[in-house]
Amino acid sequence: MGDESLADSDIHTHWGLDPSVLFLNHGSFGACPRPVLALQRGLREQMEAEPVRFLGSGLEPLWDEARASLAAFIGSDPADVVFVPNATAGVNTVLASLRFSPGDELLVTDQEYNACRNALEVVARRAGARVVVAAVPFPAASPEEALVAILRRATERTRLLLVDQVVSQTALVMPVAALVREMAARGVETLVDGAHGPGMLPVDLSSLGAAYYTGNCHKWLCAPKGAALLHVRRDLQPGVRPLVISHGASSPRADRSRFLLEFGWTGTHDPTPYLCVPEAIRFLGSLVPGGWPEVMARNRALALRGRRLLCDALCTEEPCPESMVGSMAAVPLPDAPGPKPQPPLFLDPLQVALWERHRIEVPVIYWPAFPRRVLRLSAQLYNEPAHYEKLAEAVKGLLDEGF
Question: Which structural domain, as residue segments, surrounds residue 97?
Answer without folding.
Answer: 37-281
